[in-house]
Amino acid sequence: MDRLLPWLRRTGFVYVAVALLLAALAWRVSWGTGADTQPDPGTAGAVVEVREEPPGSVVVVHVAGAVRKPGIYDVPYDARVHLAVRRAGGPTRKANLAGINLAAPVRDGQQIVVPRAAPSGAGEGESGSLGPVSLSSATSEQLQTLDGVGPTLAARIIEWRRANGGFSSVDQLMDVPGIGEGRLAALREKVAP
Questions:
Q1: Are the C-beta atoms of residues 91 and 116 closer than 8 Å to each other?
Q2: Considering only the top CATH level, what class is 58-192?
Q3: Can you give the chain as a three-state secondary structure string?
């Protein structure tokens, strides 16, 4: 014990300094997540999406399909799809608004495709839209109109979209279980992010 005491005296201050530093760091981290970041009691149990962009910033989206003025538009970072469609002149009379989620939040670089209504006389198994199928807004039924996409694969695409906030590129289909390079090549021209 007598030999241990001088060693503690020599190195003890280092341990105390490290402990104080760690305590200060822990206090700083816990202070940054204080009461101002606690959930509002009125929203207890609600799922709240955290957006990285600061208020007042904008994102850039590409609006295509059945809109009056397709193109690239700046919208507020917390905008919804309906605002982007409105910026593009609104839907045309041939638009199928039931085929797109107008309440979905937009993301920077997102392509929003407003599908066209099925032409009268469209046969069973036809896609029901004149343009590509939007991966970010298509229903399970619309996805199943694509060659090689059945109910299971459509459900996987929708689940991936929900988990990742939508598609910003067609190449992200490779991340969906059950889609390989061959299927991606077959779908590439028939879908849009």
A1: no
A2: mainly alpha
A3: CCCHHHHHHHHHHHHHHHHHHHHHHHHHHHHHCCHHHCCCHHHCCCCCCCCCCCCCCEEEEEEEECECCCEEEEEECCCEHHHHHHHCCCECCCECHHHCCCCCECCCCCEEEECECCCCCCCCCCCCCCCCEECCCCCHHHHCCCCCCCHHHHHHHHHHHHHHCCCCCHHHHHHCCCCCHHHHHHHHHHEEC
Unique residue bearing structure tokens 């619309």:
142
pTM, 2 dp = 0.43
Q: Nearest to residue 104, comparing CAs of 143, 145, 56, 136?
A: 136
56-73 pLDDT, tens digit per residue, is: 689 999 999 889 999 999
